[in-house]
């Protein structure tokens, strides 16, 4: 369980980026949303100890982040940053994914097993010899996920994992996230993409000016006045509501609902 208890974060500039945020998450897909500057990144960085609370407490499966190093916490919480291409420096995918486990001092056999597993989970089987810089945006995004997964973290933080990707690449990333969820990982998705929230999230956490203003199911989130938070309802929902169908999560559900209504 990731547990955030009444966390305040004040940067050296005096900026109060988090003002008493509390939440918990387990093995689920939670979308962390909110306007620019609302505190999403600041909150996410508390979950793997990159930032420590000014006040309050953060625990990762009972480990207080103040009492553990980022290296220790990174085996529990993996953070995939935005624009991951700047992360790669090895000559091939195998070496890139093996880098983290190698630093853990694991045997060559165990390293290879982890790389194999991580590449499979990220839908990158058969990419061992590829050079990271020759890969597409979607492949790089999945490679970044594989690198973090090879540390076998229980929880994953994904920062805008589909931004800038075409539909096909996005859906590979989405498939990879679903697969991880079904294998017992908890995933925190930081995003401005409301279509992605609708498609993938099980729960939504909305921040506004450093405060948690909503924490609940996706359907309830989309019934909020999202304009007040600089967010837009997905087109799919606007169409389904216009058609009198109500809440749907995919084009397929919309079509089924319309077909059902017509019978
Ligand atoms: N290192 C820092 N020093 C001082 N202030 C910071 C620092 N990092 C972030 N802030 C401020 O803290 C507030 C929250 O920033 P944060 O990056 O957490 O927001 P965000 O919701 O992730 O925004 P975005 O959607 O733009 O990525 C903002 O006002 C930001 O300017």
UniProtKB/TrEMBL annotation:
EC number(s) stated in the UniProt entry for this protein: 3.6.3.-
Enzyme class: hydrolase
Cellular compartment(s): Cell membrane
Major site of localization recorded for this protein: membrane
InterPro entries (alphabetical): AAA+_ATPase, ABC_transporter-like_ATP-bd, ABC_transporter-like_CS, ABC_transpr_CbiO/EcfA_su, ECF_ABC_transporter_ATP-bd, P-loop_NTPase
Key words of the record: ATP-binding, Cell membrane, Hydrolase, Membrane, Nucleotide-binding, Translocase, Transport
SUPFAM superfamilies noted in UniProt: P-loop containing nucleoside triphosphate hydrolases
A Gene Ontology molecular function term of the record: ATP binding
One Pfam family here: ABC_tran
One Gene Ontology cellular component annotation held by this UniProt entry: ATP-binding cassette (ABC) transporter complex
PROSITE patterns tied to this protein: ABC_TRANSPORTER_1, ABC_TRANSPORTER_2
Coiled-coil ranges per UniProt: none
Gene3D superfamilies, alphabetized: P-loop containing nucleotide triphosphate hydrolases
ABC transporter domain sequence ranges: 2-234
Protein family according to the UniProt entry: Belongs to the ABC transporter superfamily.
Official protein name in the record: Putative enzyme
């Amino acid at each position: 369980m990731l547990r955030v208890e009444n966390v305040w974060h004040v940067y050296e500039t005096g900026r109060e980026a988090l003002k008493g945020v509390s939440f918990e998450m387990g093995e689920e897909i939670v979308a962390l949303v909110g306007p620019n500057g609302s505190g999403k990144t600041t909150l996410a960085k508390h979950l793997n100890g990159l930032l420590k609370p000014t006040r309050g407490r953060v625990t990762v499966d009972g480990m207080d982040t103040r009492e553990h190093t980022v290296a220790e916490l990174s085996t529990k919480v993996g953070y995939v940053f935005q624009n991951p291409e700047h992360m790669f420096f090895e000559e091939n995918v195998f070496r890139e994914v093996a880098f983290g486990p190698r630093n853990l001092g694991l045997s060559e056999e165990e390293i290879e097993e982890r790389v194999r597993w991580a590449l499979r989970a990220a839908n990158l089987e058969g990419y061992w010899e590829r050079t990271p810089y020759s890969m597409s945006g979607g492949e790089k995004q999945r490679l970044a996920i594989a690198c973090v997964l090879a540390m076998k973290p229980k929880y994953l933080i994904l920062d805008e994992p589909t931004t800038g990707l075409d539909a096909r690449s996005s859906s590979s990333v989405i498939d990879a996230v679903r697969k991880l969820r079904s294998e017992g990982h908890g995933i925190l998705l930081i995003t401005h993409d409301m279509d992605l929230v609708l498609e993938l999230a099980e729960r939504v956490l909305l921040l506004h000016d450093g405060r948690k203003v909503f924490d609940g199911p996706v359907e309830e989130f989309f019934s909020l006045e999202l304009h007040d938070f600089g967010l837009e309802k997905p087109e799919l929902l606007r169409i389904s509501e216009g058609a009198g169908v109500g809440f749907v999560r995919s084009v397929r559900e919309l079509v089924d609902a319309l077909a059902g209504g017509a019978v």
